[in-house]
Amino acid sequence: MAAARVVFGEIETIEREEEVKTETYLVLYGSGYLAPGYSGHNAGDAFKLVAEGRNEVNKAQYTDGNFEVLFCPTDKDFFNKIKSRTEIKRLDIYSHAWQHGINLGGFTGKRTIDGVEYDGDTINWLDEVQDGGRDLRRVEIHENVYIPASTQTTELTELAITSFADGCEIYFWGCNAGGQLTSSGDHVLSNQPYMEDPKGSFAQEFAETVGKGNVYALVGKGTGAGSMFKTDKNGENVYTDGEMLPANIALNHNNINTVTLNAMDYMKKFPL
Question: Nearest Cα to 182, choosing from 192, 169, 170?
Fold first, then answer.
């Protein structure tokens, strides 16, 4: 850009270079299973596919930026991938989740994290040891409640706040990270067991920790108010728009042709 100053009655133009910060649009996805070897509630490759769909939407929607979609099966991966980026303008997370955290699922085979090689086939992913397998696959608040031997109350102290741009948007697509709705539509933390205050949710604490922009989370109705993938008119999953829906909304449409619905209609914005 150009600026001007007066020098002895004449106008002198000064070229001033302005730093241009490239914004980052980051998509992270976890494993489809809750834990290696656990067969229930397995999304298969769906998190990967919907994450790739979101990345393509980002490229089409935003004119310039760094666009990345990355596999993120552990809390170490989660925090490292955020810390090593700058100017994150949008972050989307596709994983299993619950009111107090996200479950990235863990991994099989060998994986190097922080320069250390881990063998996922020898890790006990169900243990209750601080920094053990169960801890490794989850990012959670109230960790000392879920892992009684842990001295850590929240893992969000590991979050690199400076990696986020002003006005950032963060989206949690997994089940119940922002709470649930009662049958009358009241926003609560949980229906069963009943916990009233949705400000106790993971999405709320994440938003408060980042301290800028907004966090969004899908919030569905009922005790099973989780998240489901969109479908076409034949009931087949659709991943290309990078969106998911609350389970009750999908089931209200018999899980058919829900690709026509707008996920933002079922998002809550945090902090509340």
Answer: 192
Q: Are 126 and 83 in contact (CB under 8 A)?
A: no
- Token pair listed for 161: 């706040």
Which residues pair with residue 90 across a beta bridge? 25, 169
Contacts with 236 (C-beta within 8 Å, 6 or more apart), sequence order: none
The pLDDT tens digits for 96-120 are: 999 999 999 999 999 999 899 999 9
What confidence tens digit (pLDDT) does each residue in 173-232 have? 999 999 999 999 999 999 999 999 999 999 999 999 999 999 999 999 998 789 999 999
Nearest to 30 by CA among 92, 85, 74: 74
Neighbours of 182 (CB within 10 A): 15
For 30-84, list the strands marked E by DSSP. 66-71
Q: Which of 255, 233, 169, 90 is nearest to 244 (CA)?
A: 255
Give the distance, in angstroms, between the CA of residue 94 and the centroid of all CA atoms in the same chain.
Answer: 6
Query: In 3D, which of 93, 66, 81, 86 has the Cα closest to residue 162?
Result: 86
Joined together, the tokens standing for residue 173 give: 């697509």
CA-to-CA separations, 219 to 173, 174, 227, in angstroms, rounded: 9, 10, 8
pTM as predicted: 0.92
Distance CA(69)–CA(55), nearest Å, equals: 6
Distance CA 12, CA 234 (A): 68
Q: Which residues pair with 29 in a beta bridge?
A: 71, 94
Q: Is the peptide bond before 271 cis (omega within 30 degrees of 0)?
A: yes
